[in-house]
Amino acid sequence: MNNKNIRKIIGQYSLFLIGLFIASMGVAFSTKAGLGTSPVASLPYSVSLVSSLFSFGGWLNVLSVIQIAVQVILLRRKCKPVEIIIQTVLAFVYGYLTNLSCWLIRDIPVNNYFEQLLYLAISCFVLAFGIWLQFKGKVAMLPGEAMNRAISEVTGKRYENVKIFFDIFYIAVSAIICLVFLGELKGVREGSIIAAISVGFIIKLYNLIFDKYKSKVNN
Q1: 198: number of CA atoms within 13 Å, CB side?
Q2: DSSP state of 2
Q3: Which of 5, 91, 134, 207 has the fewest CB neighbours in a 10 Å radius?
Q4: What is the pTM of this model?
């Protein structure tokens, strides 16, 4: 491997990690809004409200381990050990970054419903930008998306349909946990639905802006 390839790999992973941190800030702002987090984060966040065994980031790690285990079981010999190791490392980094991001904005006040909606909007745009940067890094996938991909490969179902199913599944389970143990919806609210619908469209918007900028620079 020559120096050019090494620099390329370092650049790709650096971009991915930056995207990972930005995405964690998006999740942190969604928790600050208090209107429900993104579908994938809703389950560990809801559990963290019920159990103090782990932090929010810690329960994210637990979910990631389950998602990685599902991949290994489904793919068997097709499973790539190096990819699993990278996923595991990145998942735990993401859990740590989520805790860090929540800590960084811990003192921001939320006084009314308008401010809740404002922070929810910020979370959607920030989360979408973080995910967009991760895609541009083109080096790895977090366990949740990788699990969806594995299920798609094994079952022959479209990746988008698998993702939609699990987004709904996470929200439904989170809602049940909150209602049973807290008597109210906290981890899942209108913000979870808004995030599930809007983040994908915002990522498309970033792609459109980037493509236009790239085309303008090339011309």
Answers
A1: 17
A2: -
A3: 5
A4: 0.85
